């Protein structure tokens, strides 16, 4: 094996370690990215760190602190370009230069125009900089952050479970349980990594969900309900805010009695002139959300897709048949009349989860 190939493979291995470290903070960093960092002297790892949440020091700073006095002439690995601006924390590029780092290996450039420029600054300081190592992995890790920066909207994921014949419930509305326990465990873990989970009023009335991570993660997302007229029960699991906060988006002419009852229970209410998925996503962006999980029924799912509020689909397919011409499907009317209008997912993967299959793809 040539030295260059050995170096490349070691760089790739340590970049994967950076991604592993970064992922430990999934769900905590919004609106900041997930970043991990490793520092080596020769073949020895002398420091590691990751960015734990917005307002806290960045990954490189934690790694430099962990390395102590062993940074002179060292190599620093980080999955995202070291920042070059002062926000809530000082520029990481300055700290890397001051620490005497000799070589920096970077997974991907920072898409945020305010933060980029670190690569050039490091090179101007005489530091060897290598970029694009495990770039696809690094981009996938921070796909929500990249989307938020580029489109000024949170990244939307539509999740549903359906039978093999495309139903999300029976003709009576019964839906517990389509998918198996391992699939539901995957959903709970996904919730813990998202900032927000959204349902419509019909899901609250029919299913009375909790929308928590059920201890599969270390945190619960903000639970959001969209209901134009607040046609909602005054007693529901979502109003139990001791386990997770709940925000209800409604319209300005909604039921005042229900509004008062929910506020009394600690539920946050926000009224809009026109309640639409894109209006909700715009407001969640303003609140700092980065990833939003849509767990709604077919009507709201179709509206979310039509307004560009969904970028990724998580579809659990169970090997079950329930039939029923009026049984609901995961996505309502999109107004398409020709097969050529169908939305085709890209970068599709299918993973067996117990007896079910998880299909992931991007719109």
Quick structural summary:
The chain has helices spanning 3-23, 59-67, 92-98, 118-124, 135-141, 143-151, 181-193, 201-207, 256-264, 277-286, 298-306, and strands at 36-41, 44-50, 75-80, 103-108, 128-130, 155-163, 196-200, 222-226, 246-251, 268-272, 291-294, 312-318, 346-353, 356-362. The protein is α/β, with parallel strands linked by helices. The protein is elongated.
Give a written overview of the molecule.
This protein has helices at 3-23, 59-67, 92-98, 118-124, 135-141, 143-151, 181-193, 201-207, 256-264, 277-286, 298-306; strands spanning 36-41, 44-50, 75-80, 103-108, 128-130, 155-163, 196-200, 222-226, 246-251, 268-272, 291-294, 312-318, 346-353, 356-362. With 363 residues, it is α/β, with parallel strands linked by helices. The strands form 2 sheets. The chain has a 9-stranded mixed β-sheet, with helices on both faces. It has a 5-stranded mixed β-sheet with strand order 2-1-3-4-5, sandwiched between helices. The protein is elongated and about 70 Å long.
Radius of gyration over alpha carbons?
23 Å
Kindly name the structural category. Answer: alpha/beta
Helix proportion range? 25-40%
> Which geometry do the CA atoms define?
elongated
So how many helices? 11
Distance between the termini: 41 Å
Largest sheet: 9 strands, mixed
Q: How many strands?
A: 14
Write the layout of secondary structure elements.
Elements: H1 3-23, E1 36-41, E2 44-50, H2 59-67, E3 75-80, H3 92-98, E4 103-108, H4 118-124, E5 128-130, H5 135-141, H6 143-151, E6 155-163, H7 181-193, E7 196-200, H8 201-207, E8 222-226, E9 246-251, H9 256-264, E10 268-272, H10 277-286, E11 291-294, H11 298-306, E12 312-318, E13 346-353, E14 356-362
Parallel strand pairs: 3-4, 4-5, 6-11, 6-12, 7-8, 7-11, 8-9, 9-10
Antiparallel strand pairs: 1-2, 1-3, 12-14, 13-14
Helix pairs in contact: 3-4
